[in-house]
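Example 4.3 (complexes with small molecules)
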Amino acid sequence: MLALVTTPGRAHTTEVTEVPDAAARPGEVLLRPLCVGVCGTDREISEGLFGVAPDGEERLILGHEVLARVEAGGHGFTRGDIVCATVRRSCRHCLACEEGSPDGCLTGDYLERGITRLHGFAAELVAEAPEHLIRVPAGLGPLAVLAEPASICCRGIRHAEAIAGRQPWARRRTLVLGTGAIGMLGTYLLRLGGYDVWTAGRSPATEERARLAAACGAAYFSVAETSPVDVAAEVGGFDVVLEATGDAQAMIDTMSLLGRNGVACLLGIDGRPRDVCIDGRVLGVDAILQNRALFGSVNAHREDWESAVHALDEARRRWPDAVESFIGLTVGVDAFAKAFAHRGVKATLTFEGL
Ligand code: BGC
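Answer. The structure with beta-D-glucopyranose bound is encoded below.
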């Protein structure tokens, strides 16, 4: 079968090539991927900066955002069912993984499909254990491929609310930094949650991403024109900040955007070795006197996946035109380079008809 394969650690090795056919082992379900989303992590792996091949192998099949059709039924699934699959798998030797929360793995020995020591979903066929499959509401269609990034947002928001909820808090004003898939989905999920949302991006307020953020009722502003610090001062500080820029300086700056009892959640990753700076009084005075908190969040629990598919379905009903245009490019897997170069909210690769 054909698959999108790369050699982790070596840039420019990504290609569509023949690999041995996937077969379902006992207890697994055979799936036919319909489309696979591309994200910053795929680009990093493809540039040789991230990712690990399965033990004893040199190459890794990419793809961790999948929408698939059940090819051979069983284990509660019927041929033709449409599903997504979670990404992270248990390390098998920590409390969090034992309790079904590999998203909070305590050892770091977890595996991730298409990223770390497990092949991904960018192939004509894949096999998966039924406990990692998420059923997709009928009607969500190709948008269900957004369930993976949406699950990352659901986890971040769930944890932010849990942390903020340790004490009385305002639960009103939120700021999303970044307008990639995580930023855009975070904006929509917070709006669905009843929050007032400000979304900040680099694009001028007249461009497509700004239009998309505003379509769900968020107030968009461009950081090229307006400083988030000024907006925070004007509104009286944010109760929740979701950071999705992938810039460590922007991450530490979130501390200065929070109001009393506010919580900032970091979702973007920035692996560049460098120092970032913060006004000592923000950390040494405001963070303490105003009970502010900053935390990072990775991956997602099954519970977040369930929330994600339902929230996507609700968002699609409420803002159909905008949500439909999140996926700005869909190409066959052989044109993967185009998808990797796409700078809209999301690009996807299709497999049907290969
Ligand atoms: C994925 C997560 C994963 C993380 C770290 C992200 O791109 O969405 O599921 O845990 O990379 O590998």
